[in-house]
Amino acid sequence: IVASQLRTSNFQCKECNPTCRRTPDGPTPPQPKPQPEKGHPLVCVFLPPAPANPKMPFMPPSTKIAETLKDAIKNHQPAFVILAPNPMARFGQPDAVAETLKNLGIAVQSSQQVMEERIGPNGRPTATSQITLTTWPKKNLIGKALAGQVGILLSSMPLTLTPKGNATIWPLIQTPADTWGETDPTSRQPKKNTNEKSGPFTVAAAFKDENERLVVLTDPYFATNQVTQYGPRDFLSGRLLHTLFPANSELFVNSIYWLAGQNDLIATSARSQDVRRYEAISPAAHIAVGWIVLLGLPVLCLIAGGAV
């Protein structure tokens, strides 16, 4: 779906696999990276590879994607990197893509998963990695275009940002303050421990220096169709009435615009405004509005009645 949105803006979306794949007919060779016409920018979107098999911990992970990323950085080609949790991190097996990003000042905390506590249907608190997003950093064009929109994270990891040299790194997505970095996400009932860090966490960031632009996102499900097209549907036709999390597709598409240098295209699309939303208000403002509605309005009615 997000690819179709880009095509309406005159982008050509082509897919290639830089790694060898096993098929019934034998292994297939790596596919070459598409080459655009002269004068046209190329934005590489790196999707997370299939997770390593924990039953085969000694099989080295493929480093071809990391090599392709290094090649893009070397040739000053903008890139959007989507990361997934590395189940082999606990066995000391590094992620080649994460190591490449670390050299740029973006460290991926692969051993942690961002979680928050919610009250479940049974009335008891339960930990979940599904985090609803209502506020966005406004120090960049991408965040400003998301004002008032709702997004969601399904499985994310924290990022540690340490700019080097003349590079600038700023967060695109930050989790609420009541989240924490769970070090044992496979537990049936994960709970926050004293040795686990508290939020807010940066889970998506933008990198820029003199010759390179880069966006890093640590949720592999963030821009999938299952998330961007989640919402109520018409009973008869099955047509999607409106999406519940429009910020997910908006952040992805606007990030591609920024990477391609098309800043004038960064804006809130009309489709994302099918359901008008207000920005989240502070707790103090929420209490003030509540008292005005519950007490202020009845008092005004009594005063008006007394005056009459």
State the major sheet: 5 strands, mixed
Number of helices, where a helix is a run of at least 4 consecutive DSSP H or I residues? 7
How much of the sequence lies in strands comes to 15-25%
How large is the radius of gyration? 23 Å
Shape by Cα distribution: globular
Q: What would you call the structural class? A: alpha+beta
Distance between the termini: 60 Å
Structure description:
The chain is an alpha+beta fold and 308 residues long. Helix content is 23%, strand content 19%. It contains 7 helices and 14 strands. The protein has helices at residues 2-7, 64-74, 96-102, 141-144, 225-228, 246-259, 283-307, and strands at 21-23, 26-28, 44-46, 79-82, 106-108, 113-119, 125-128, 131-133, 151-153, 159-161, 168-174, 180-182, 202-208, 213-217. The strands form 5 sheets. It has a 5-stranded mixed sheet with strand order 3-4-14-13-11, sandwiched between helices. Strands 7-6-12 form a 3-stranded antiparallel sheet, with no helix packed on it. The protein has a two-stranded antiparallel ribbon with strand order 1-2. The protein is globular and about 85 Å long.
Indicate the topology.
Elements lengths: L1 H6 L13 E3 L2 E3 L15 E3 L17 H11 L4 E4 L13 H7 L3 E3 L4 E7 L5 E4 L2 E3 L7 H4 L6 E3 L5 E3 L6 E7 L5 E3 L19 E7 L4 E5 L7 H4 L17 H14 L23 H25 L1
Parallel strand pairs: 3-4, 4-14
Antiparallel strand pairs: 1-2, 5-10, 6-7, 6-12, 8-9, 11-13, 13-14
Helix pairs in contact: 2-3
